[in-house]
Write a structure and sequence with these properties.
The chain is 42% helix and 6% strand. The chain is mostly helical. Strands 1-2 form a two-stranded antiparallel sheet. β1 and β2 (34-39) form a beta hairpin.
Length: 151
C-alpha cells in the first residue's frame, strides 16, 4: 500500500499548512501511476440523518412506521428490549462440567416453565445476590456458611 502524498513528504500523519491543497491531489499507486478519478484523504459523502431519497426530508410518521417494521439482525420484526444490563466489572469462575450443565438446566427451566428468558450470567448474578443477602441477614446460620463448613 502506497503512502498518501502528505505522509510520504513529512513522514507523519499530522496535517501541514498545505494539507488541504494536498487532499485534492490524485492518489498514485505503487508504480507512480495516477489513480483514475480518486483523490487522497477525501471522505465519502454521507446522507444526512432523517433525509429521504435525493436528500429530501422524511415525514416523521413515515420514519416511525418504517422503524417499527425493520428487522433486527435478520430475526424478523424488531423485538422489545430484554432488560439486559451492561456490566463493567468481570470475574472468571471455573466450574465443573456437571455444574455448568446444572446452570444451563436451570436457565432452560426458567425459560420453559416460568417464561423467563435470561442468560446464565443473569442467573449467576441473581444467585450471588440471594446468597449474599442471606449471609448478611442470618450470619452464622446462613446457607453459605453452612455449606462452606460442610454442614
Amino acid at each position: 500500500m502506497a503512502l498518501s502524498p502528505s505522509l510520504a513528504r513529512n513522514g507523519s500523519g499530522g496535517a501541514s499548512a498545505s494539507g488541504a491543497a494536498r487532499a485534492q491531489e490524485p492518489v498514485k499507486d505503487a508504480q507512480g501511476a495516477s489513480g483514475a478519478g480518486r483523490t487522497a484523504d477525501v471522505p465519502a459523502a454521507r446522507p444526512e440523518p432523517g433525509a429521504g431519497p435525493a436528500g429530501r426530508a422524511e415525514d416523521p410518521a413515515e420514519a416511525a412506521r418504517r422503524a417499527a417494521t425493520t428487522t433486527v439482525r435478520g430475526r424478523g420484526r424488531a423485538r422489545r428490549p430484554s432488560g439486559r444490563e451492561r456490566h463493567d466489572e468481570k470475574i472468571t469462575v471455573y466450574v465443573s462440567a456437571e455444574e455448568l450443565m446444572d446452570l444451563e438446566h436451570a436457565r432452560l427451566v426458567l425459560r420453559g416453565e416460568h417464561g423467563l428468558a435470561v442468560d446464565r450470567g443473569r442467573v449467576v448474578r441473581e444467585a450471588i445476590s440471594v446468597v449474599l443477602a442471606d449471609l448478611e441477614q442470618r450470619g452464622e446460620a446462613s446457607i453459605l456458611v453452612r455449606r462452606l463448613r460442610g454442614r
